[in-house]
Amino acid sequence: MLEYRRPKRIRKYETLFIIHPDRVEERQEVLDRIQRLVEEHDGRVLKVDEWGMRKLAYPIEKKKQGYYILVEFYGNADLPPRLEQFFRIDERVIRFIVVKLEDRYQPEEEEIAAEAA
User: Fold this and answer.
1) E strand or H helix at 112, and its extent?
2) What are phi and psi for residue 95, nearest 5 degrees?
3) Angle, to 10 degrees, between the axis of helix 79-89 and the axis of helix 27-40?
4) pTM as predicted
């Protein structure tokens, strides 16, 4: 008897996270780990936007500044919980948020549209 497997839906996400101001020199290691996590879940990092050192809205761990990084990516639905787990464990990241941008993302369609433009 054949078992029906629901095809995995690819979704588009973005995450904004803040790196501890004393650990900014380690930001590339954090980005490399995020890249590996995304690729392990059939995804790809589309854009990395480093906003740099900015003032926090309120002090976190007695710090008034943090290094902001925005990452746009796509992957399976089980990717955000894995990313959130990584952010919670890593002491370099002091705040984070992961947001779903598109529920049904077709990377092939976006590549075709980019080539046509």
Assistant:
1) helix 107-116
2) -150, 150
3) 150
4) 0.84
